[in-house]
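Question (not urgent): is this output format expected?
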Amino acid sequence: MADKLSESQALLILNALPEVGPITTHRLLEAFGGDPCRILSAGQEKLMEVRGVGEVISRSIVSWREVFDLEKEEARMMANGVGFIRAADAEYPPLLKEIHDPPIGLYRKGNRVLDRPCVAIVGSRRTTLYGQTVAAKLGADLARAGFCVVSGLARGIDTAAHEGALSAGGPTAAILGHGIDIIYPPENLALYRRIEHEGALFTEFPFSRRADRQSFAMRNRIVAGMSVALIVVESDVNGGSMITAKFAGDQGRLVFAVPGRIDQPTSAGCHQLIRDGATLLTGIDDLLSELSYLDGLRPTAVMPNASRHVVGPAPEDFSPEEQRLLSTFSGGAILSIDAICQTSGLELSVVSAALMRLELRRKVAKRLDGTFEARAAS
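Got this back:
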């Protein structure tokens, strides 16, 4: 009986009913006091009192046992090490809660806790060597700067972005447009397994759900919605990445596009995005500058470990290099990057990466003249 179900089981059931959808489910939850078990135990007439719920949706909910085998689904989840996270769970991407139609739950597979701000990298499946190289470098640079790289595990740009993040030892999240037990494209089996061990895989679709045009579009809204920014590396004007960019714009996310050759069809979408107002991106410094410029306007969830304390003894979660850099700013010093290297005794590459992380954590600010200073307490 529905009244014997747990809240998580009830959400799992509602999530699996394609006729219902996330927007209708949220309306139902609001109407039934946030209790998904009450939705499943309600009669068809009571369900139809909710705006947007007609005969088809109400019948689907009442007869859910005819289309969804809960016991089988839970057995497959256990056998495959898959969890189902709700919006109330700590593992649920915080920014995803802000979008118009957030998933009511996500299947999750992976060993790594994703507690960093996310940046999505997307692009064409039919990509060039240039695009793959750029995507891999951006993925690696973002990972080193403290971001989690998000993409869709597709051929081309997605694959290169995931591989770039993994090459730098950083986390990456793959958002799937099908059931979590399906590996598509099949040649990404090894990458799928590596992300499982070094990152995380997410999907809102139940086991065995095959991909189609609708599911990929639903996947794209999650890619954009859980990220603070979206980077399009290569895309033609009608590519799926353009849909993801539209989602990102509608959701209030930063949208960046990498320029390419004017005679290359896979660059046409990026050039159109730039003409339409996306920020041209040539490296992650462009993204960091934009985040710094929008400092107080960004959602607080984007900047983890943000602090309002005066720069002093660094908390335990700062690396030794970050602690050393923070100490160079004592007394209100304003320093060039060369001076920071000289004072700290660290190599330029180490200083650059540590400064990026400290900028993200709002501990250090880059001035217009290129020098750096510690942020004052507020």
